[in-house]
Structure formats: C-alpha cells, structure tokens
Amino acid sequence: MANLSFGGLKLTPPKILSLGFVLLIFSGTLLLCLPAASTGERLDFIDALFMATSATCVTGLAVIDTGTGLSTFGQIVLLVLFQFGGLGFVTMATLITLVLNKRISLKERLLMQESMNQSSMQGIVRLIRRVLIYSLVIQFSGAVLLALRFIEDMPLGQAIYYGVFHSISIFNNAGFDLFGDVHGPFSGLTRYVNDPIVNITSILLIFLGGIGFIVLSDVLDFRRRKRLTLHSKVVLWTSTLLVLLGAVVFFWLELNHTLKSLPPGGKILASFLQAVTPRSGGVTTIEIPLLRESTQFLMILLMFIGAAPGSTGGGIKVTTFALLLTAVYGRLRGKEETVLFRNRIAKENVYRAITMTLLSLMLIVGATMLLSVTESAEFLTVLFESVSAFGTSGITMGLTPELTTIGKVLVIILMFVGRTGPLTLAYALKPKKSKELYRYPEGNITIG
After folding, report:
1. For FRET with 159, which of 114, 305, 398, 432 sits at 20 to 30 Å CA-CA?
2. Looking at the whole model, is its pTM more than 0.90?
3. What is the mean pLDDT of residues 139-167?
C-alpha cells in the first residue's frame, strides 16, 4: 500500500481516512459544545462527542432528542456531519476541489481509491463526480417528496426544512429524525406507520444509500454496457434477498403482535421498512422495545450484516456475508474453489471476509460484556445496542439515552470502528510490513 507524505509524515490512505474522521468528529464536538447548539443547557463534552460521532459515523443513536434538545444551529451541525460522514470527507473535499476548478493530485486520487474501495485509480475522479451527482439528485428528490407530505402537518417553511433534513439523514443512513422525544412512545416515524409516501420514500432512500455508489453507477451504465460487474450482481442479489426474507419473517413474527392493529397496507409497509432499516437506515415506524424477542434478534442479525461496501452503511457488508455463505456451501460440497456467478473468488478475499467477520464478532462480544457490567439493562437490550452501534444502524431499544459515561465511551468506539471498518482501522494501526525471511514447516491440526 502506497505511503503518502504529509508535512514530513508518511501516512497510508487508511490512516489518513481514519484521522479525517477523527478531525471531523472533534470539529463537530466543539461546535455542539457551543451554547447556540442547544435549546436548554449547553451540552457537556461527552454528550457532544457522542452526538458528533453518531452523526459523522452515520449511526443515529442519540443521548438527547435531536428535535427538542438541539437548536436549529445544532441540527444543521449534525446535518453537515452526516452528509460529510455518509458521502465521505474525501468525496466532499473532491466536490470543493472540482467547484474551485483545481487539479486533483496523485495523493488525492490515492485517497479517493481507498475511500471508494476501488482496486485501481483508473476513472476514480469520474466515479467521484458521478457519486456526487447521483447522491444530490436522490436526496433532492427525497426532500421534495417528504416536504410535500409534511406540508399537510406543518407550515411550509418547516415542512421544507424537515423534508431536507430527513432526506439527507435517511439517504446517508444516519437515522436522525426531528419527531418526538427519544424517551417517548412516538419517537421516530411511528406516526407515519400507515403513510405510503413516507414509507416508500424512506425505503428507497435507505436502499439506494445502502447498495453503494459503485453499484448505482454500474446500474445506470447498464443500458450502455449491457452487463453488470460481479460486485454489483452480488450486492443487488444479496440485498434484495435480505430485504424480502427480512420482511416476510418480520410480518410472520409480528402479525398478531405489533402489526395486529394496522390495516393490510400498513402491515406490509411496516414489515418492509423494518426489514430495510437494519441495513443501517435507523428510522423506524414500529417501537422496537415492543417487538418480540425473536424479531429483535432478527434485526440484530440484519444490523450485523449491514449494507454494501462503498456505501453510507455499516456492518460487515453484504458482500462479506455472501462470500462466507458461498465458501461454506462450497466446502460442504467438497469444492476447493469459491465461485459466485461463475466467477472464481481469490482465496485472499475469502480470508479477508473471515478476518473481517471474526474481528467484528470479537469487538461486539467484548463491548457487550463490558456494557453488561456498566449498564443496568437486560442482555438482549445491551447486545442490540452494541450491534446497532457497530452496524451504524442507529436503532435503539431505549438504552442509549440512559448510558453511563463509560457506556457512552464504549458506544462511541463501536460507532467509530463500525464506520471506518475493523480492517481499515487494523491497516491504519499496523506497523510497517516487513518481508518474511523464512517459512515454518507445515503442520496438521484436527478440525471439528
């Protein structure tokens, strides 16, 4: 991996990306600490840090109510943070460079390559330009649709502001909303559980933000190229299957429970939104604490899998999940190679998927154990909150507002690692790679 020299320091792209997120978080923290950011008492440092991390890492977990606890200035700070955090500060910096008509250097191209998970720099500027156009068009469309619906419930100016805020929040999978109190029964979009415009718009925004900009570009090029890349095929098929399976299982588990009082259309809309939002969306129309434990565990699994690489979402990523399933299926059939859509997958990618999954599991297990000690809550609630933070989903069972200071720090770490990625963080912190001068003899060990 190429090293980039900045002020005499040699930094790899993963280190620069990690440091960029840290700087963005602390900038947001300082702004949220200002008296103008709150409607009541000024936020203390740990709460401001928590909110800034949650916004930058596009998570959506909140220790105070965004709609009532933060002023318009504070809400706009969050909006800027999750726009930068969702699209990536490298992408936003590229937008500024393009607007100023400045030349993009080799260093900046290397950073773009790393931020978009690309294997080469070829066409990377064109891809970034497309990412910006697609995301702005999608967010603008979502803002218009939501504002037109909100006009029925609030004044025009407020409806436009709410439409813009929620469209950007939902597309970037940030999960912040301006409705209700985080402690109350009407938090999130529960009041719109039967509304087709709010539900369908939210589902599309989460799905489009979660499949990744590379896939969006590939799909829009399909008419010209007449084919999709292997990456796009895996993301689209796996994402679609997870949404459909999640919606069906949610409907089945909650039909005679939380969905019982809803009309048929509301049942279907609620099932699909609750199946899509664990992908990292963070907005819900059903109160999560009221769900069956089996349904809550289903959402934990979906949050752990997360969205696609190069997207606004978190988790281990759908490609990692698909690769692991395919590798296990192949081994059960006695196959040496892992094959997806008639393409052989390099063993290095399989090892990377295994490493990513195990690191993520160890992080979640460790954090859950510690939170079980520091917080007074049931185990499933603690596990749910841990996975939500790591998967940057932002769905809560009500524990986040009650976290202790130590608990807040642990969740902050989970959100940061979940957004930057365990492997990216590991690469950022690893020492300089040295050439192995010798090999150990091969040994055998019994498995199973």
Report:
1. 398
2. no
3. 93
